[in-house]
Design brief:
Length: about 170
């Protein structure tokens, strides 16, 4: 007899993909996962259109090819992340703020000319802002990989590729 807990696990999408891989004669696990498994949606690229980033590939490329920079935290940006719901403050306080943070990924001009976007690491950014606020009177920053448009554009997913990803996750 299958317990309720195990029944819920079997209903899980990732479990379904693994079961499909086994039925198809493939090894479950990474082979059963779609190539792109973490996508960030930037709501507006400055023209009213969204951009979708392959975050896992972008993160791997930045770690292999770029040095981090120390940048000043903008408290207003951190507040906007919280107010928009993009960042869960409870998660920041319970988890993110207690960890040694990885650098964030900042894409120059991704949200329009002069408008940078944090594509990976919004929770870490807010944790840095909270840490700075707790040490009043001090200036500090956060570590980031900073990408110019020619560096981040190859990681923007096309509409066709998004449709493939959506079909693979059904």
């Amino acid at each position: 007899m299958i317990s309720d807990r195990n029944r819920r696990r079997l209903a899980n999408r990732s479990m379904k993909r693994q079961q499909a891989a086994i039925r198809a004669g493939r090894e479950p696990g990474l082979a059963a996962r779609p190539e792109v498994d973490e996508v960030f949606r930037l709501e507006d690229d400055g023209t009213g259109q969204p951009l979708y980033f392959d975050v896992r590939a972008l993160r791997a490329w930045t770690k292999a090819n770029l040095e981090t920079k120390s940048l000043a935290v903008e408290p207003g940006r951190a507040q906007r992340f919280i107010e928009s719901g993009q960042v869960d403050l409870d998660h920041v306080m319970a988890s993110t703020i207690r960890q040694q943070p990885d650098p964030v990924i900042l894409c120059r001009h991704a949200a329009g000319p002069g408008e940078d976007a944090i594509v990976d690491g919004a929770h870490r950014y807010v944790a840095a802002a909270i840490g700075i606020a707790m040490i009043s009177g001090r200036t500090a920053g956060y570590h980031a990989y900073v990408l110019e448009p020619e560096q981040w554009r190859p990681f923007v997913l096309s509409p066709d590729r998004l449709a493939e990803i959506a079909a693979a996750n059904r």
